[in-house]
């Protein structure tokens, strides 16, 4: 076997191995997010103290998938209530999906602490919640919603009404929300109920079905506002408190789950007993559960990472001071647990806890968490640096071998054509590197399959371009295509290597940047096109595109040139 042929076979083998390994690496990273389990929940945390209650009852209305701009334009009742009480824009966590959002609303624990990262989670949640704390304190907790709330928080309810209304079409969610409203109004007649959850699903269903900027979505939001008006009318806001929250927004095409501001910045309205009028501000979704606990006077959930929105609370100064101290003590214990897991000495907070200065504690707590996570990230990156440098050296050596005349121009042209096709098809469809590109979970598999097909199309286009360009000698065309394929693989391997250095391939103590993580996943799927599996083929069988593409491209290029020149030869 000649030296050149041996080089060809070696490159074909390397590209095929990269394609096969990329699929396995993609599955490992995907499962590390989907099946993420928090390391911070093993030890028992101390129970925070109860505080003086500020209201007789809290009614928590959660509207699924409510965009803040549509709420401002199509919800006169919500806006009227906000003018009478407190209005916030709160930031959600990621993934900005329903189950993770509900968990944050109920517990105050972000996704990286609760471990609830997808709607596939099967509960109950492993973190404390305001529902559990209220029930442990002897308060009656009731709710009306869908089965997901029972899945996540079932043991926290004395009574949870879940109407049996099938959803075969988006429009049928109207029947579900009307049934939930009827059950919710019935629960409000229970004088013993101290914490009431009422959940409306309509905006989320319509957002997915028709888009977050559609007239249909705006109309369902308007009708949800009418249902909210009936809830408010059934309450006595002189002694009860109404809180209206949402889990996430929607992008214009209907998806959510990612980092977009229209998805992650959502409205929060609080009105009634214990709420100051005229307050406007910004907060986080994790602040809702501690605020509900403070209003009811029950212990703040032990895993809450947010704070009570004290500036919006109204009550005796001694009660507000007690809430501030309780919140600081609860979060200090949680931060110490995080620091213990990450191997960092516990931060001391005695002065800010004793002084009940919650704003000062918020700053100190944020610094402590940032430092704990930041130091762990630095340690991990230092540990990965030798492997990353080795990978970088191999990429540099590979580039030096591939980008040599007379094939340098072909490698560059092939890489640019491939990027133009793959990224052009992606961004040309309006996609971005975000989990929000999925409109429904049923689209996920087809979406990822389409990305591999886009990459296969790009590889074939590169093979045809170089096959026609270098048609005179079959071996030269084959080598040119193989070199271009190698250049494409190195380009995407470099991007994968950067993410590996930054976050690794599995995530045992926290979640990575999910926007960058989504791109990393797509980069791995792009590399998998060098050895894609076909339905019915056993693992590890696949199609060695590093062989098929160059062979077809070189052969078709030569045949095409021969046909194009036939009139000249025969003329």
Layout of secondary structure:
Layout: H1 3-34, E1 57-63, H2 68-74, H3 76-84, E2 86-91, H4 98-107, H5 111-114, H6 130-136, E3 140-144, H7 147-153, E4 159-161, H8 173-188, E5 193-200, H9 202-210, H10 215-233, E6 240-246, H11 261-264, E7 265-272, E8 279-284, H12 288-296, H13 317-341, H14 350-355, H15 358-402, H16 408-428, H17 444-469, H18 474-503, H19 514-528, H20 545-564, H21 566-570
What does this structure look like?
The chain has 21 helices and eight strands. It is α/β, with parallel strands linked by helices. Strand 3, helix 7 and strand 4 form a beta-alpha-beta unit. Helix 1 packs parallel to helix 18, helix 17 packs antiparallel against helix 18 and helix 18 runs antiparallel to helix 19.
Précis, in short:
The protein has about 575 residues and is of the alpha/beta class. Helix content is about 55%, strand content about 10%.
First-last Cα distance? 41 Å
| pLDDT < 50 stretches | 566-571
Strand count: 8
Strand residue content? 5-15%
Search tags:
single chain; 571 residues; alpha/beta; eight-stranded mixed β-sheet; 21 helices; 57% helix; 9% strand; elongated
